[in-house]
Design goal:
mainly alpha; 30 helices; single chain
C-alpha cells in the first residue's frame, strides 16, 4: 500500500479540517454506496456495466470528498473547493453517463460519437486524479505512462514517441478515440475484471470487516490471542502473530492491520523485553501474512478466482497450508528470540482467561461460521459476503437486546422509554458507522483496481504481455530460479508505488504468461507465487510500508525495523519457491507424498529460521549454520534422493543442537 494510506480516513477517521456540510456529504455518499452494494449483492443483481459504473461513480465521489486536492491536512479554501467540486461533478458524470445511456451506447457498437469520447476522456482524468489522492502518486504515474505508451506509435496520436521505444517494445500506436473507446466504453479498461471484482466480491467483504470492527470483534480476537498465548515465553509477540492471522485477511491492508493490532501488541512486546525494532518488525511481518491467510486473503482470492477460473473455495483450501507454514515460521522466530533473551510470559493476573473471553464474545464467531458454511455450500462469494454482513448486524442486535432486556434489569438498569430511545439511537449510530467505514475502507482498493484496469487493457491492446515474456526469457536464459528472482525484483519495484492488489494485477498480466507457458508452472501456482511476491514491498527495505508503520508505533528507526520485518518474513520468499519445485503442495497428490512434502517444508523453514538466529535449543556454531543453507536448497530440489539427503542433514544438525542443549542442562 502507498504511504498515503497510512493516514487515510479509513484508519484515523475523517479529517477534522473538513467543514460540517462536507462531513455530512461524506456520510451520505458512503452510506449510499454501501446500501447500493448490499442491494446488488443480496437482493437484485445488476448488469455488468450498471454495477461497475455506479460503483465507480460513488467511489470517486467519495474519494474527492475524503481527500482534498491540496492534502488532507490543509483546508480546501476557495480554489481547492472549486477544483474538488469540478472533479466531484466529473465523477458523477462519468459514472452515471454510462448507466443512463447504456442502451444507446451499445446500439452504436463501436461507432462512438463526440460526447462518448469527451466523457471518456473526463473519466480517465478523474480516475487518475482520484487514484493520486486515495492511493498515491506512484500508481497514477504508472497508469499515465501506460496511456502514453498506447498512444506512441507510427499510427498513434503521439507518433514522435515511437522513436524512443526499443525495438521489442514498439507497436503500431492508437488514436485517442480508439484508446478512450476501449478504456471507457468497453469491458477491457476501467470496467474490466479488476474493477468488477472490487465492485462485487471485495466490497462486501470489506464491509463485513468494517462491521466486525465497529461491533468490537477486533478486540475479541486480540483478547483471545492473548488468553491463549500470553503466559508463554514472548506471549505478546505470539499473540500478535495469531491476532494478525485472524484479522489481517479481513482488513485487506497490512498497514491497517499494523496500526490496529499493533497499537495493542507492540507496547506489550516492548515491555516484555523485545527491542523496539523487533516488536515493530514482528507486527509488520505478521500483518503482511494476514494478506495471504484464508478465507479472504485481502482481495487476492477473489482476483485469482476470476483470472484462473478456479473456484474461490478451491483457492482458499490450497492456500491454507502455505499460510500456516508462513505464520509458523514467524511464530518460531518469535519463540527463538524469547528463549535467547530469557523472556518470561505475562502474569496470569494481567491476562483474561479463554473461558472469560469466549463467554463475553463467542457471538463474534457466528458470522465467521456462517461465512465458512456458505462457502462450503458453494454459494456465490458476493452472496456469501451479503449474508455475512447481515449475520454480523443480526448478532450485534440480538446481543444488545439481550443485555438491554435481560442482563441490564438484573444489574439494576430498568427498561424505560428514555433508555429505549437511547438504545435505538445508539444502534442506528453503529449501523451508520459500519456502512460509512466499509465504504471509506474500500476507496483505495477500488481506485487501485480501476487504474489497474487501464494498465491491463493497454497490455492487451499493445501485446506488451507477450513482449515482456520474451524479455523475461532472454534475461533469465530459461533458468526458472533467475526468472523468479526477476519477478521478486519487479514486485519490489512496483510495490514502491503501487498497493499490493494493483502490483499483483500488473505483475500477473506481464509475467504470468511467461511463468505458465515458457517455464511450465501451473497457472494457479503462477498466480499464487506472484501474489505472494506482491506482498514484499510491505516488509522489504528500502520501502517497507508495513515496517515503517510498525516503527512509528514502536518508536524505532524505520530502516532498522524494516530489516527486522524482512528477516521475520523470510517465508514470503521461500514458500513460493517451495510451491514451484514441490507442486504437490498446491496441486495435490497421493497422501504419502502430501505428508512428505509438508514435513520437509516444516523442517526446512524451521532450520532456516534457526540458522538466521543462530539458536534453536541452544546456541549454534557457524559450521552447523552454514550446513543448513545447502541442506535447505536440497529440500527444495524436486528429486526424492536429493530431498532425503537435505532432510537428513537438517535433522542431524538440529538433533546435534538438541543433544548439546541437554548436555548443557546436565552440566549446569
Amino acid at each position: 500500500m502507498s504511504q498515503q494510506e497510512q493516514t487515510s480516513p479509513s484508519l484515523l477517521g475523517v479529517s477534522g479540517l473538513q467543514p460540517k456540510p462536507v462531513l455530512w456529504l461524506i456520510t451520505i455518499v458512503a452510506v449510499g454506496l454501501s446500501l447500493f452494494q448490499l442491494y446488488s449483492a443480496g437482493i437484485q443483481q445488476l448488469g455488468l456495466f450498471y454495477q461497475r459504473s455506479i460503483h465507480l461513480a460513488l467511489i470517486m465521489m467519495l474519494a474527492f470528498l475524503l481527500y482534498p486536492v491540496f492534502g488532507s491536512n490543509r483546508r480546501r479554501g476557495i480554489i481547492g473547493g472549486i477544483i474538488d467540486t469540478l472533479f466531484f461533478a466529473g465523477a458523477f458524470i462519468t459514472g452515471f453517463y454510462l448507466a443512463f445511456y447504456l442502451d444507446d451506447i451499445i446500439a452504436r457498437a463501436g461507432f462512438w460519437n463526440q460526447t462518448d469520447i469527451v466523457v471518456g476522456c473526463i473519466a480517465v482524468v478523474t480516475v487518475l486524479e482520484a487514484s493520486r489522492r486515495a492511493v498515491g502518486l506512484g500508481l497514477t504515474i504508472i497508469g499515465a505512462l501506460f496511456i502514453v505508451y498506447a498512444l506512441a506509435g507510427p499510427r498513434g496520436a503521439l507518433p514522435w514517441l515511437s522513436d524512443f521505444l526499443p525495438g521489442i517494445l514498439a507497436h503500431r500506436g492508437y488514436t485517442v478515440e480508439r484508446l478512450v473507446g476501449q478504456r471507457y466504453l468497453g469491458q477491457e479498461g476501467l470496467f474490466g475484471l479488476p474493477l468488477g471484482v472490487a465492485a462485487t466480491f471485495i466490497f462486501v467483504f470489506v464491509l463485513f470487516g468494517a462491521f466486525l470492527e465497529v461491533t468490537g470483534a477486533g478486540k475479541f480476537f486480540i483478547d483471545l490471542a492473548y488468553a491463549a498465548t500470553g503466559r508463554q515465553r514472548g506471549g505478546p509477540a505470539k499473540a500478535a502473530v495469531l491476532a494478525s492471522a485472524g484479522m489481517g485477511s479481513i482488513s485487506g491492508s497490512a498497514i491497517a492491520n499494523v496500526v490496529t493490532t499493533g497499537a495493542f501488541t507492540i507496547p506489550l512486546m516492548k515491555r516484555l523485553g523485545y527491542k523496539p525494532a523487533q516488536a515493530g518488525g514482528i507486527e509488520a511481518a505478521a500483518s503482511t501474512g494476514g494478506q495471504i491467510m484464508p478465507p479472504l486473503m485481502g482481495a487476492g482470492a477473489f482476483l485469482m478466482a476470476e483470472y484462473t477460473g478456479v473456484p474461490y473455495l478451491e483457492i482458499v483450501k490450497v492456500s491454507i497450508i502455505p499460510a500456516l507454514l508462513y505464520f509458523g515460521t514467524v511464530y518460531l522466530f518469535v519463540h527463538i528470540i524469547a528463549i535467547k533473551q530469557g523472556m518470561k510470559g505475562m502474569a496470569a493476573s494481567e491476562l483474561p482467561s479463554v473461558r472469560q473471553v469466549m463467554r463475553e464474545g463467542w457471538h463474534f464467531l457466528v458470522p465467521l461460521v456462517v461465512l465458512v458454511y456458505l462457502l462450503v455450500m458453494h454459494m456465490s462469494p458476493m452472496r456469501v459476503g451479503y449474508y455475512a454482513v447481515v449475520s454480523v448486524v443480526a448478532v450485534a442486535v440480538l446481543r444488545y437486546l439481550a443485555w438491554f432486556f435481560v442482563i441490564g434489569p438484573r444489574q439494576g438498569h430498568p427498561v424505560d422509554w428514555v433508555r429505549i430511545r437511547q438504545m435505538v439511537a445508539r444502534g442506528l449510530q453503529l449501523l451508520i458507522e459500519g456502512l460509512s467505514l466499509g465504504a471509506r475502507n474500500a476507496v483505495p482498493v477500488s481506485m487501485a483496481c480501476a487504474v489497474a484496469g487501464i494498465i491491463v487493457g493497454v497490455v492487451g491492446l499493445t501485446g506488451l504481455g507477450l513482449k515482456f515474456s520474451s524479455m523475461m526469457m532472454a534475461f533469465s536464459g530459461g533458468n526458472i530460479v533467475l526468472a523468479l528472482l526477476l519477478v521478486i525484483i519487479a514486485s519490489l519495484i512496483l510495490g514502491m508505488g503501487l498497493p499490493v492488489t494493483a502490483a499483483y494485477i500488473v505483475l500477473i498480466v506481464l509475467v504470468g504468461p511467461a511463468l505458465s507457458s515458457e517455464f511450465g508452472i501451473p497457472l494457479l501456482i503462477a498466480h499464487l507465487v506472484v501474489f505472494w511476491y506482491s506482498q514484499d514491498s510491505n516488509v522489504t527495505p528500502p520501502v517497507a510500508l508495513a515496517g515503517f508503520a510498525g516503527a512509528a508505533i514502536a518508536g524505532s528507526k524505520p530502516m532498522e525495523t524494516s530489516f527486522q520485518a524482512w528477516k521475520f518474513a523470510k517465508g514470503l520468499y521461500l514458500i513460493p519457491l517451495f510451491m514451484v519445485f514441490n507442486q504437490e503442495l498446491i496441486m495435490g497428490g497421493p497422501l504419502p507424498v502430501m505428508i512428505w512434502t509438508v514435513v520437509i517444508a516444516v523442517c526446512a523453514l524451521a532450520a532456516f529460521a534457526a540458522a538466521l538466529e543462530g539458536y534453536l535449543f541452544t546456541w549454534m556454531n557457524p559450521i552447523p549454520r552454514l550446513l543448513i543453507v545447502p541442506a535447505t536448497i536440497a529440500v527444495f530440489y524436486p528429486n526424492m534422493m536429493v530431498e532425503v539427503a537435505g532432510l537428513a542433514t537438517i535433522l542431524l544438525v538440529l538433533g546435534h543442537n538438541w543433544w548439546l542443549s541437554r548436555r548443557e542442562a546436565r552440566l549446569a
